[in-house]
Specification:
With 208 residues, this protein is an alpha/beta fold. It folds into 2 domains: 141 residues, 3-Layer(aba) Sandwich (Rossmann fold); 60 residues, DNA polymerase, domain 1 (Orthogonal Bundle), CATH 1.10.150.240. Helices cover 43% and strands 14% of the residues. The chain is built from 10 helices and 8 strands. The protein has a 6-stranded parallel sheet with strand order 5-4-1-6-7-8, with helices on both faces. It has a two-stranded antiparallel sheet with strand order 2-3. The longest helix has 15 residues.
């Protein structure tokens, strides 16, 4: 069997509140008021340094990133949970013989921390973050994820246009999910091979 690759945040887990809160709390290190939650949410899915760029001087970004990672690593499971139906879907995909991998913009260490805290580690064959190579929409993290499971891939599943572009560049079929942060219109404009609005729809697509 081949492998199925998933984005993490907004696809497998609902992590919006914890990411937003940790990002906003980090601004205390520079004595600045944080951006609104709505402004932060519009940037989620980008690398951390890109997220901070509109709100902080360049010389402050390393400190903000370090504080975010310290804070978030401690509190990444305060409110984050797998989306309803995801755990049973992963179990059924594994039972059918598929290898399951994560490909995320988070660092591998942070992604594995989240997966471990949520009890998802046993449901996945490999968790791949973006470590010192180009982030999505480049396909590098997907190639690394597939190398981690030692199989060729069939689908890339994600909630952002960058997931669709990266999956296509990696030679996979792509499926956009609408329960994450990506606007449906933007997802459709990326021209995924499939677009689903519920986990049941995703199950039907992947398990037929």
């Amino acid at each position: 069997m081949t492998a199925i690759v998933f984005d993490l945040d907004g696809t497998l887990v609902d992590s919006l509140d914890d990411i937003t809160a940790a990002f906003r709390r980090s601004f205390h290190v520079i004595g600045a008021a944080p951006p609104t939650a709505e402004a932060v949410r519009a940037l989620i899915g980008k690398p951390l340094r890109e997220m901070y760029t509109p709100w902080a001087p360049a010389e402050a970004i390393d400190g903000l990133v370090a504080e975010y990672r310290r804070d978030y690593s401690e509190r990444c499971a305060d409110r984050t949970r797998p989306f309803p139906g995801i755990e049973s879907l992963l179990a059924d995909l594994r039972a059918s013989g598929h290898a399951l991998a994560v490909a995320t913009t988070k660092t591998s260490w942070m992604a594995r921390t989240v997966v471990d805290r949520l009890g998802l580690a046993e449901a996945l064959d490999h968790v791949q973050g973006t470590d010192d190579f180009p982030h999505k929409p480049a396909p590098d993290v997907i190639h690394h994820a597939l190398a981690g499971v030692g199989r060729s891939g069939t689908w890339m599943i994600g909630d952002a246009p960058s997931d669709v572009v990266a999956g296509r560049a990696a030679g996979l079929r792509t499926c956009a999910v609408t329960w994450g942060v990506g606007a449906e219109a933007h997802l459709r404009a990326a021209e995924p091979d499939a677009l689903v609005t519920t986990v049941d729809d995703l199950r039907a697509l992947l398990l037929g």
